[in-house]
Structure to design on (68 residues):
């Protein structure tokens, strides 16, 4: 990571909470369909025997090693 990327990574996103924008019915339908797909895939795949934290750590380690 260069300095610019590090700065962006350490800068929290600018969000207004609660959101003042309305979500369209089409966007809600898209999100529901995506959620259903993810839940179906989770059911099909099942447990992979590794926690999310371990999986992220492993991916970051592999990325660091591939960068040299």
């Amino acid at each position: 990571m260069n300095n610019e990327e590090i700065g962006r990574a350490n800068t929290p996103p600018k969000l207004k909470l609660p959101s003042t924008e309305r979500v369209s019915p089409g966007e809600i339908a898209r999100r529901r369909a995506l959620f259903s797909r993810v839940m179906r895939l989770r059911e099909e795949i099942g447990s992979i025997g590794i926690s999310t934290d371990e999986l992220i750590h492993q991916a970051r380690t592999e990325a660091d090693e591939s960068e040299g």
In short: The chain has a mean pLDDT of 86. Residues 5 and 11 are 10 Å apart (CA to CA). The radius of gyration is 18 Å.
